[in-house]
Amino acid sequence: MRDITSALPLAVLESMQRATLRYTYRGILCLKNPFDFALYTKLIHELAPRTIIEIGSHSGGSALWMADMLRAFGIDGHIYSIDIRPVSGVTDERIDFVTADVRKLGETLSPEFLHSLPGPILVIEDGAHFYDTTIAAMRFFAPILRPGDYLLVEDGIVNDLVPLDKVYAKYDNGPNRAIFDFLAETGDRFEIDTDYCDFFGHNYTYNTNGYLKCVR
Length: 216
Ligand SMILES: C[S@@+](CC[C@H](N)C(=O)[O-])C[C@H]1O[C@@H](n2cnc3c(N)ncnc32)[C@H](O)[C@@H]1O
Known about the structure:
7-stranded mixed sheet; Rossmann fold
């Protein structure tokens, strides 16, 4: 697989990460960086997803921002934002917040529900960033994805951040290892979309090699 690290200089990552952790959208924490805000905006416009599934709601800011993007682009889409902790204080007709553990999604999301979701579908794995949780989400949603749909794996950047703060070592390169194994086990069904990953420079994104397009 191609180099999964980001070519962004460490000093830029450090400054950007500090700001990302306190960024707010409409007053609500929204843990995104400027590169991925731009890449998500482009992707949502180009894909025009009727369904967005987000693992990892946190404060609800990213779901709220995506709902506003859908509205701005005139896309008739809906967001299901899933988190192990309930979200309070954010309501939007386009968002359903769902409380569930990514390791046990089958207990909450039925096959009937999953197969009723209109495409195009955008799945965003932005949960715990450990190997097992990341690959659990990828394996759970892969069967419902069709050619043209996207599976975004957030925060492979945690591995690039280890030299800055040892706290990131606990993720044990989880997202990147999950992407590697997932691509190996799904054969030729998914491709790394380098048009997104490398739009601003090699993996100038927190989602290193993580913009995956379903192609078969
Ligand atoms: C990085 S934050 C999500 C950030 C959010 N998408 C944003 O951009 O603002 C990760 C979230 O994953 C949730 N999480 C952690 N473990 C989880 C699990 N096993 N199942 C579901 N969600 C989990 C945490 O509660 C946390 O809110």
